[in-house]
Write a structure and sequence with these properties.
The chain is an all-alpha fold. Helices cover 78% and strands 0% of the residues. The chain has one domain (5-334). Helix 6 packs across helix 9.
């Protein structure tokens, strides 16, 4: 998988640039000035807990992938899948809309001896589980939260928009999973279009169709293996739950660290809503847009003087720690050096 050094460096530069600009804009428009005393009031104990939790969800995510891999009879070691996962995090952070992580993981797991179809099935299945969880837990948090607190119009709007989009995407993929023959027919239809014959020979098109059909068979087989291995599936679902418990605890921990008196459910919901929004932010890793959208979700529930630092700390743990650590794994991986 060819990855341009210039494109990586450009992605890193733009991600930092957009992030810094966004944070400065948040500080400017949410407060007349940033009081330096805020930094001295931060409780380092809770920041340490946030750092430990941050590392924990990396490990949980990689362990979940390891279990899914074992379901399709792969013996890739945990250190190896952890290195691939962290490297993919880095790639997603420096590519538009975080789009580079998925193909990077598919490619490097495929290099370990798995067919592309089975590898794709693994990561798509993992993504569907996440989408299903978010589609389930987000409305629960929203409707329970409304009993105790009043969500502002912005949060309510993003809730309904994100939920509708998630349900549509989820239904589409689930339908495809249970009706794979539609994909076979779609491939045949697309390759049968006359426009391709202007650029490719008939035998090349037949070879491409044969390859895609074979990989689709592997894809369906991989899904079947993962769904039928109930023990592994249960472990994966349990890890998924732990992952999101750790992930959603970040916002509340930062509230406590900054001594912000805000209902915890609002911040938890803001983090859930953000996960639906992030894929549509076109900048590298969603930089700039992520900070601004999260600030928009929190603007009416956090005092202006602390909104900027809250967003900056949240983004630091969620994004920049994995950007830096992921870069180390990425550099070692593309050079095929052992990092663990």
């Amino acid at each position: 998988m060819a990855i341009s050094r210039d494109s990586i460096l450009k992605g890193v530069f733009l991600s930092f640039l957009f992030s810094i600009i966004a944070i400065l804009l948040i500080i400017k428009f949410s407060s007349d000035s940033l009081n330096p005393r805020i930094f001295f009031e931060i409780d380092p104990y809770y920041l340490l807990i946030a750092a430990i939790i941050n590392i924990s969800w990396w490990v949980i995510k990689a362990l979940k992938l390891k279990i899914l891999l074992s379901s399709i009879n792969s013996d890739i070691t945990f250190p190896r899948i952890f290195a691939i996962f962290m490297s993919a995090l880095f790639v997603s952070h420096v590519t538009p809309s975080s789009s580079g992580g998925f193909p990077f993981q598919v490619y490097y797991v495929h290099r370990e001896g798995l067919p592309i179809g089975e590898t794709s099935a693994l990561f798509i299945f993992d993504g569907l589980l996440t989408m299903a969880f978010l589609s389930l837990i987000t409305p629960i948090v929203f409707f329970i939260g409304r009993v105790y607190i009043e969500f502002d119009l912005t949060l309510s709007f993003f809730f309904y928009l994100s939920l509708i989009m998630a349900i549509i995407v989820l239904i589409f993929f689930v339908y495809i999973l249970f009706r794979p023959e539609l994909v076979f027919n779609l491939i045949r239809f697309l390759l049968g279009l006359s426009i391709w014959r202007r650029f490719f020979k008939e035998e090349q098109l037949l070879k491409a169709e044969s390859f895609l059909m074979e990989e689709l068979d592997y894809f369906i087989e991989g899904l079947s293996l993962m769904l039928n291995n109930r023990k592994n599936l249960f472990q994966v679902l349990l890890l998924l739950l732990f992952y999101w418990v750790f992930y959603l605890s970040l916002g509340p921990l930062l509230l406590i660290a900054l001594n912000i008196d805000t209902p915890i459910l609002t911040v938890i919901f803001a983090q859930l809503a953000f996960n639906f929004i992030q894929p549509f932010i076109p900048t590298p890793g969603g930089s700039g847009g992520s900070e601004l959208s999260f600030a928009l979700l929190l603007k009416n529930i956090i005092l202006p003087g602390k909104l900027g630092i809250m967003v900056a700390l949240w983004r630091f743990f969620l994004y920049y720690t994995s950007l830096v650590i992921g870069a180390i794994f990425f550099t070692a991986l593309i050079k095929e050096k052992t990092v663990i």
